[in-house]
Structures are given as C-alpha cells and as structure tokens.
Design brief:
- The protein has 438 residues and is an alpha/beta fold.
- It has 14 helices and 15 strands.
- The strands form three sheets. Strands 3-4-2-1-7-9-10-8 form an eight-stranded mixed sheet, sandwiched between helices.
- Helix 10 packs antiparallel against helix 12.
- The protein binds adenosine-5'-diphosphate, aspartic acid (ASP) and magnesium ion.
C-alpha cells in the first residue's frame, strides 16, 4: 500500500495545523509522499502567503519597496518554525528570494515561493526528504504540463527517495524558469505525484469533511458526498465547487487511482471517495449528487429566421468568438435562435468587436447581450435512470420565484444547467438543495 497526501493551505497555515498534519502522516507507514501548499488563511480576514507574494511581485514591478508584505511572509514562516520548536533557519532563503524579487523575478517564480518554503519546513519536521518540484514537474514551451516527461523524471526521483515532501503548484519550463499552475494548482501536483508513485490512493486533505453537496458558504451545513465519480466531480468543480482544482482529475483518472478528500481538522470523518466509474461508485444517497454554480456569465443571443436551414451558421458564430480569444461555456439553441454563454470577463474588452463581426458574418435579425447571469449545474449519475429531475429543479425555482433564463441539459445526461439572474443565485442554489435533500 502506498499513499500520496496533499495538504492545502489551511491545513498548513500555522504550527498547530502542522502538528495535525504530522499526526496524520505518521499514522500510517503507507503515507510516503506528501505534497504541500503555501500557508493559507488562519482566520477569515487573514491573507494567504501566495497573495502576499503576488503583492510583492506587483510592487516590485512598479519599482516600489516590497518590505512590508515580504516581512509579513518572513514572520509567518519564522513563527511556524519557532512554534514547532525547530532549529531550521530559512534566513538565507529569505534573503535570496527578496533579492530576486527586487531584481524583477517572474510572476510565477514569486508566486511559487510559498510552496517552496513551506515544504522545506514540513520535510524537516517530518524527517522526510525535500524534493523540489522544479526538478520534477515539467511544462512544455506552450506552458502546458508535459505529462510524459514529468512522469518519467518523477518516477526516477521518487524511487530514490523513500519518503519525501514535494512542493505543490509549480514546476519548470524547458528553459529552466519556474512556471505555476493556475490558482489552487497544488491539487494537480498531488495528482501527478500519485500517478508517478503508482499510489493506491491519493488523499487530498483540506478544511471540509469532503466534497459537500453544495457550497457551504451559501447553503447551511450541506451534506458531504460519500462517493462521486470523476466525471461528476469534474462537472461540479468546473461549475465552481472549488474544493479541488478541476484539472487535478486527469493524471490519476488515467491511472485509475481513487481520490479521497479528507478534513485535516476532523481526520475521523471518511470524507469523499472519488472513483473512476459508475460501477465502482456506491449508491448515491440522493437523487442528485451535487449542485454547484457560478456568477459572471453573459449570453450572446442571436436570432435569425430560417437559421436552421443555413449551413455553417453556428460554426461562423463560434469562429468569431474563437478569433477574439473567447471560450464558450454553453450553447442552448432553438429553431431560429442561438445563445452563446460566455464569461463576462472574457467578453468585456472584445464586446464591440465581436458584435460587429457577428453582424458582418451572419447578418442576424436580432442580436443582444445579456449580462449578470449565473449558471447552476445539478449533477448526478443517478439522473439517467431516474425521472423528473428537471421538473423538480423548476419546481424548486418557481417556489422561490426565480425566473429561469436558460436551460441546458448536458449531453452527458449527467447534469442539468440552468441560467438565472445573478441576483437570484443564492436563493436558487438553496432552493434546489432543499428540494433534493430535505
Ligand atoms: P485547500 O486550501 O485545502 O486547497 P480550498 O480552499 O482550495 O482548500 O478548498 C476548500 C474550500 O472549498 C472549502 O473550505 C469550502 O469553502 C469550498 N467549497 C466550495 N464548494 C464546496 C463544496 N461543494 N464542497 C466542499 N467545499 C466547497
Ligand atoms: N498556494 C496556491 C494558491 O493559493 C496554490 C494552492 O494552494 O494550491 O493558489
Ligand atoms: Mg485548494
């Protein structure tokens, strides 16, 4: 048995959390590889070390002094070391990093230093080797993960280290410079390490007792999901259930390694098991597995009579978005109408150009952009066989007087997505949860 454990920022935010982590790691000899995040928030108004580092980067770029945020970072690490009663000194590391930031280090290098320093402390505290992600995780020139090279090099490095701590969140580019994943990316590192180590299990330790059926910041005490498939989890995490990075699934999915989301503050809770197929999953306790959503969407609504008869209409609409670097999220369409749901932030600066190009290319009868949309996804592997899911979603929304602006039944039959006004988001999420759980 071999396990890879990833601890998130809140699990490593201070010395007390480090002690919990050490107790968890030491409880089982199978716990050989540990991936660590940078110190996260200790309390609600606290600032994550990664955010302090990004503040240093921002100041350095403007040639302003970085002393204030940098000293906060140093203090946090010094305090963890002192409170753990360790003799380790990171002073020379601090001096180097401070100097490199002042000399205009890249954003990714700066952002990665929290994981780097925290992992050094954790490695020493556990008595494990420190294995720098810079020498183990590789990106291509395009900045995407080079899975093959990474897997190969990691396998060698892991075979040489019986027990090791690996910093999450970053790796290196072919030219040797540091590159990070997007925010929350330590989850991806954990998954990559689990795959290379051919682990039996990837444990992702955080501050909630598993993936919950809905966002706990909106729904009060949502039930944990005992078991979820990779596909369901991906749908939910993409739609904003941010407990795990949505890209963390791929490396372990191919290798068939299950993920167990666990709570560092409540290690006795079983958490959520994420498994590769419906056959491996246990029977879901409710009709739906989970509900997630996001605000910040816009719909580009295009109307043209006889649209369906015009070959290439949809393609031309999507091509224009592509030419302006905008991804589309959903594509509900009718006979003479088509809506393209996009991220408002992506559309904003390109809006006028996109609308002009659409006019020119497809000459619609009508074209409109609706902002302030929220999308909610109701996800469940049980939906294919059960009836009436959509009916219950609409009934729940009608009960709290929420107007449905758009409906998209995912082609996977795994989800139903509804578009509503952003102002209704919280009430809608709560109502749908209550419909299926209570
Ligand atoms: P970590 O620092 O351990 O990586 P994150 O902050 O990235 O942890 O993710 C855990 C947080 O995700 C929880 O504290 C919770 O607020 C949030 N969250 C949002 N949606 C969900 C959900 N459906 N289930 C569990 N947690 C969720
Ligand atoms: N520390 C990084 C962040 O805050 C990466 C992570 O926590 O996974 O985004
Ligand atoms: Mg996270």
């Amino acid at each position: 048995m071999l396990k890879v454990l990833k601890f998130g920022g809140s699990s490593l935010a201070d010395a007390e959390q480090f002690r919990k982590v050490a107790a968890i790691v030491k409880s089982d000899p199978a716990n050989r590889y540990v991936v660590a995040s940078a110190p996260g928030k200790r309390f609600a108004e606290d600032v994550k070390v990664t955010d302090l580092l990004l503040e240093c980067y921002r100041l350095a770029r403007k040639k302003e002094p970085i002393d204030e945020p940098f000293e906060k970072i140093e203090t946090r690490f010094r305090q963890i070391i002192a409170d753990l009663g360790m003799t380790l000194s990171l002073e020379s590391e601090f001096a180097t990093i401070r100097l490199v930031i002042k000399n205009r280090a890249s954003r990714d290098y700066v952002a990665s230093r929290g994981e780097y320093l925290n992992s050094m402390i954790l490695a020493e505290y556990l008595g494990y080797s420190f294995l720098d992600a810079e020498d183990a995780i590789y990106f291509t020139d395009e900045g995407i993960l080079d899975m093959e090279r990474t897997d190969e090099s990691l396998k060698v490095l892991l075979s040489e280290a019986d027990r090791a701590v690996i910093p999450g969140f970053y790796g290196s580019m072919p030219n040797g410079t540091v590159r990070t994943f997007s925010r929350g990316g330590s989850d991806i590192t954990g998954s990559i390490v689990a795959r290379a180590a051919e682990a039996d299990l990837y444990e992702n330790w955080t501050d909630v007792s598993g993936m919950l059926m809905a966002d706990p910041r909106i729904v009060k005490d949502p039930e944990p999901i005992p078991c979820i498939t990779y596909r369901e989890l991906r749908e939910l995490s993409y739609m904003g259930a941010s407990v795990m990075h949505e890209d963390a699934i791929f490396p372990v999915r191919e290798a068939g390694i299950p993920i167990n989301i666990r709570n560092t503050n409540c290690p006795e809770a079983p958490g959520t098991m994420i498994v590769s197929s419906d056959e491996m999953a246990t029977k879901p306790p409710h009709h739906v597995t989970g509900i997630a959503g996001k605000k910040g969407f816009s719909a580009i609504y295009v109307e043209k009579s006889m649209m369906n008869g015009q070959k290439g209409f949809g393609r031309r609409v999507l091509q224009i978005l592509e030419e302006h670097g905008i991804n589309f999220e959903h594509l509900p369409s009718g006979i003479d109408t088509m809506s393209v749901v996009v991220n408002t932030a992506e559309l904003e600066s390109e809006k006028d150009a996109v609308l002009a190009a659409l006019q020119k290319s497809v000459a619609p009868d009508k074209i409109d952009v609706f902002d302030d949309l929220a999308m909610i996804a109701v996800v469940g592997r049980g939906m294919v066989s059960a009836h009436g899911t959509a009916y219950r979603v609409f009934k729940a929304l009608a009960r709290v007087d929420v107007n449905v602006r758009m409906i998209d039944q995912g082609s996977s039959e795994l989800n139903i997505i509804v578009g509503i006004n952003a102002a209704d988001y919280e009430a809608a999420l709560d109502a749908i949860y209550k419909e299926f759980v209570k």
